[in-house]
Design brief:
This is Hotdog family 3-hydroxylacyl-ACP dehydratase. With 137 residues, this protein is of the alpha+beta class. It has one helix and eight strands, in the order E-E-E-E-H-E-E-E-E. The longest helix is centred in the middle third of the chain and has 22 residues.
Amino acid sequence: MHQTDILNLIPQRPPFVMVDALLDANDSGARTIFTITGNNVMVQNGLFTEAGLMENIAQTAAAKAGYQAMSQNKAVEPGYIAAVKNLEIFALPKVGDQLITEIKIENHIFDVTVITGTVHCNDALMATCEMKIFISK
């Protein structure tokens, strides 16, 4: 699976879109791809910021949820980052770099999903965290 019409899967809109395509998704997680451009709102001094990496992880989770919703003929619902835990930033990618982001579902209780997320660039780990995401009904 390779879903390139990402705007159908996520509630975010330009200029705040931090994923280009959903590479794959299943019940336990998802992977996205994203190429950093110079005009991205999360780029400072040619580098994709820490906040951009966190948002990229969150939007990967949103793309998974959107894909699931669409496959069940349901509306794509907005989600919000409720908490971030154990965030580690190992390096900041630069303009032109391509990110592969993977999320794994750790737990799902009512309207809250707990995920772990990792961001890789050129096979190097850029960032990792645990995130709680609240889905607004």
